[in-house]
Amino acid sequence: MRRFFFVSSLTLFALSPAHADITHKLTQSAQISVDQAYSSATRLGSTYSVSGSNVTPSVTSGGSTTSGAIGGLNLSSITDGVPGLTDTAFTQSTTGESFSLTESYVEADTIPSATAVSTGNVTSLPAFGSVVTGSGGVAGSLAATASAAGDITITAGGAGTSGILSNSQSIEID
Predict the structure, then answer these.
(1) Is 7 a residue whose pLDDT tops 90?
(2) Torsion angle, CA of 45/50/56/57, rounded to 10 degrees?
């Protein structure tokens, strides 16, 4: 009886049909791009600083000299966004002794008229203290093609271009 049950079990398994879903995916893609032109300009402001030892500062304004005063940026006299400068004069406090003096002045960028963009181009860029500019890409002969047979190709372009080819296969069995 055991043999009969064993043989009939084998026969039952051998006769069972297999049910499976198979999914096969092929994905192909091509991406091409041309870098855009760009410019970033940052206007610098005015700065004034002074430091020293064994020196006496003075400022002359309107014919009158004030000892112990330090000049600097004159915010009541602004032209094109740039403040005027009140100059500082220095004399050695104790004659014959060592002294040190550091004075620094950076003049601000003037405020320009508005920059216009026409046909995607900026005709003239502002001349600011910090300007970063990129010329952009040249498409040239840049192209991507895909055939019915599944072949994909990218033809190189000029400077500032890129291309990405992607080919993926997946098989899923449930």
Answers:
(1) no
(2) -10
Residue 3 lies in a domain: no
**DSSP character for 142?**
-
pTM above the 0.85 mark? no
**Average of pLDDT values for 82-111?**
93
In a domain, 136, yes or no: yes
**Phi and psi at residue 152, to the nearest 5°:** -125, 140
Closest residue by Cα to residue 40 from 109, 126, 146, 156: 126
Domain check: are 136 and 152 in the same one? Answer: yes
pLDDT tens-digit map of 50-72: 999 999 999 998 888 999 999 99
Tally Cβ neighbours within 10 Å of residue 130: 10
Determine the structural domain holding residue 101 and report its residue range. 43-106
